[in-house]
Amino acid sequence: METSQDLFKELETAEKLFSDGSIKSAQKIVRNVLKESKNYKKVPNKLRHKINAALSRSRYFDEISSFATNPKREELINSIDKLIKNPLDNPKKHAHSIHDIQAQWQLLDLSSKPASKSQWLNFNELTNKAWEPCKEYFDEIKQIKINNAKERENIINEINNYIQSNEAKWPNSKNLIIYLQKMFQRWQKFAPVLDQDLNRLKKLYFDARKPINDEIKKQESVNKVQKEALIEKVRNINNEDNRININEFKKLKQEWEKIGPSGRKNEKKLWNEFNKTADKFFDEKKQKIIDEINTIKDLNLKLNDGSISTSEVKELLKEIEDAKNTKEYKKITSDIKVEIDKIKNTKKKDKINSYINIYNILIKNDHIENAPNIFLKSINKSFGNNKSNIKKLTYSCIKLEIIAGLDSLKKDINVRNKIQLELLTNKFNKNESLPNDLESLINYFIENFSENDVTTTQKNLWKRITKCIELIL
């Protein structure tokens, strides 16, 4: 026989279960305490008051349960009454409608407080009346209920066998929960059963599940302790380098994900605490990102007003660590690319202009120092020419037009055809000596030019070459 102190402890356990939402477990403990207290000749006042308080709380939850399910039960009673007043023409369909209503009634009894006696008597009486139009089908339905009971017994046996096979080494709580959910889904499929079997099977079902539920609670308790330990580890992270702090937290987060659930009531609370404890690291990182963004904005202003070069910006951006995924960083990298493209275009234009200006140098309207180095030797050579070789000058021009994809003059068609044949032949001639690129052909033109006999012919040829230079470069 338990002492009054033992009963006090059990009532405290019941109170905790009530608070955690495990109502049925708490009510079971309260009933056991009430039963044990009746063995006392005189129940201590303090214990009697505590029992009365627990009974009052138990009745409160019963009332809440009834409040939630009674409207549904009344709805089912009304549905049966409608079937009595307006029976379906097809007895089979009529019987199945009754069968569905009974299944819903029994599922309510399984998930909440059973119906009151008056409700049950009313429902049972109406159900019996509803069956009258389809008595010939009653035996078939009865057999369905009997078969459902057998299937439920099979489920109970399966659960018991599962326990025997796994109790030496239980699966993790997540898999146990999934297993119970799967079995419950099967259990629900086999409803209704005969009234005489309902309570018996329900008790066997819940008794069969109990060892699994106990193991789930046990594992969840262990998981809770492990997760609390990880939270403490996060609190103890304290490195001068915040990146190391964040990496340490990420490692602990991976450990967290390997731990199973810690119970519906605890999981979200622990998870929030785990992340909240690490907020200090990410607050520091957020501030660093803000500082780096301000640095990027300042660099971007200097880049756009030309007070700093792209190479200097690139070098300074190497110091940016945490703001690389920000829109500011993406913008400055885009602006750097735009600035580099501008520089390339400027250099390209300068190159084109320097190439085009070669003619002015050849006729000594500009200084040779302004010529690109690649043409200096040829220019000096041209200054020693007494006469231009118009044929070779034309050759350079037409060949450049072919390379640039420009049409030549009609009068040059024969020369153009020969050059095209030459180009085709050169593809198979590894020892080709004739010029075939822009710089070589310009040098070829320069070497065959003379300032001593300049006419519109040379000038017009160079105009055509100028168009080629613009297109090729």
Protein model, in words:
Among the domains are: 222-282; 293-343, no CATH class; 357-472, no CATH class. The protein is 77% helix and 0% strand. It has 19 helices and no strands. It starts with a helix and ends with a helix.
Outline type: elongated
Q: Class by helix and strand content? A: mainly alpha
Largest sheet: none
Question: Which whole number gives the mean pLDDT?
Answer: 86
Helix and strand succession?
HHHHHHHHHHHHHHHHHHH
Strand content: under 5%
Alpha carbon gyration radius: 47 Å
User: How many β-strand stretches?
Assistant: 0
Low-confidence parts = none
Q: What is the count of DSSP helices, taking H or I runs of 4+ residues?
A: 19
Helix content: over 70%
Distance between the amino and carboxyl termini: 105 Å
Keywords for this entry:
473 residues; mainly alpha; 19 helices
Spell out the blueprint of helices and strands:
Elements: H1 4-20, H2 23-37, H3 45-85, H4 91-111, H5 117-131, H6 135-166, H7 173-189, H8 195-236, H9 242-258, H10 264-277, H11 279-304, H12 310-317, H13 327-356, H14 358-362, H15 376-382, H16 390-404, H17 413-426, H18 438-447, H19 456-472
